[in-house]
Amino acid sequence: MSEAPRAERVWDPFVRVFHWSLVTCVVLNQWVLEEGDPPHEWAGYTAAGLVGLRVLWGFIGPRHARFADFWPTPQRLREHLAALGRGEHPHTPGHNPLGALMMLALMGLVLLLGFTGWLQGTDMFWGNEAVQELHEGLAEALLWLAGLHAAAALVMGRLERTRLVKAMVTGVKERY
């Protein structure tokens, strides 16, 4: 196995702006904006729109933004988990298979939140308690997974001796 480079450009500007914009939408909707008010709705629609653009970018963007580069296939997941079980931390320029799985889960939750939020504004589901509870449950799941995602980035960055958080700002994944 070849030695991983000390620094490599991984995440392009679109991916980085997408990531921090999505974080901003989630933070605003969870802790700043009032539920059901128009700014809350528009932050939610913006988040869903960002995910839609990211999905498109996953097919047309540069190498490490493309789903083909990191899609968490069963084989990739098995190999990655086996390596972790052996105490190894294989170098992956972009998302490792577990990170990819988390990214897809987070994006799926954002889309479901956008959908259930939209449903609450329709005549058919206006005031529907089940849809409201589903929306709130999805928001809670998103927060838990986002927290796990952030913790995993810190832990894996430490284990892999990689500045993962800095890479999401600069686009360059550095080893130390």
TrEMBL record:
Q: Which GO terms describe its cellular component?
A: plasma membrane
The subcellular location is: Cell membrane
InterPro entries, per database record: Cyt_b561_bac/Ni-Hgenase (IPR011577), Di-haem_cyt_TM (IPR016174), Hydrogenase_cytochrome (IPR051542)
Which residue windows are transmembrane per the record? 42-60, 98-121, 141-159
Q: Tell me which residues make up the Cytochrome b561 bacterial/Ni-hydrogenase domain.
A: 10-171
Q: Please state what the protein is called.
A: Cytochrome B
Keyword Cell membrane (UniProt): yes
Q: Principal place where this protein is found?
A: membrane
Organism in which the protein naturally occurs: Hydrogenophaga crocea
Record keywords: Transmembrane included? yes
- Membrane topology qualifier: Multi-pass membrane protein
